[in-house]
From TrEMBL:
SUPFAM superfamilies: PUA domain-like (SSF88697). InterPro entries: EVE_domain, PUA-like_sf, UPF0310. It comes from Mucilaginibacter sabulilitoris. It comes from the Bacteria. This is UPF0310 protein SNE25_13595.
Length: 145
């Protein structure tokens, strides 16, 4: 089992939670291929909306990869992103700032946002568990709608 973080605006993550899916790195397939059934995913939102400037800087969703399927979904004639099915859990939005000093995957605490710039990253289990303990408040809420 592996533990991942994907980065997207809060509004985009909310669409994924509602639909039981995730996209990564603007709909590219490569990151999704690295994941397997049962892997955990944290969703980090630097901003409230994709084109907005209002910060969020929080983990806004948490879930597990539901199956091995990677598929495309036509959103418009020129945008057909790749997706994976995710089982999302009820959670509390969790600000990253209070956790920075306790997370090993953030090596430079002064430039804590740097690891998130890549849009998708694997993290150690102990860091994942620290974040998960702050987030999960209930049961599975969506699974492959």
């Amino acid at each position: 089992m592996k533990y991942w973080i994907t980065v997207a605006s809060k509004d985009h993550i909310a669409r994924g939670v509602a639909g039981g899916f995730m996209q990564a790195n603007h709909g590219k397939q490569a990151a999704l291929k690295r994941m397997h059934t049962g892997d955990w995913v944290l969703f980090y939102s630097p901003k409230q909306t994709m084109n907005g400037t209002e910060p969020c800087q929080a983990f806004t969703a948490i879930g597990q990869v539901a199956d091995e399927e990677i598929y495309q979904h036509k959103m418009s004639d020129d945008f057909i992103p790749w997706r994976r099915n995710i089982g999302f859990y009820q959670n509390t939005e969790t600000p990253v700032a209070p956790l920075v000093d306790k997370l090993d995957f953030i090596t430079n605490k002064k430039s804590w946002g740097y690891p998130f710039r890549f849009g998708f990253l694997e993290i150690p289990e102990h860091d994942f568990e620290r974040i998960k303990a702050k987030m999960i408040t209930g049961k599975l809420i969506t699974l492959n709608k």
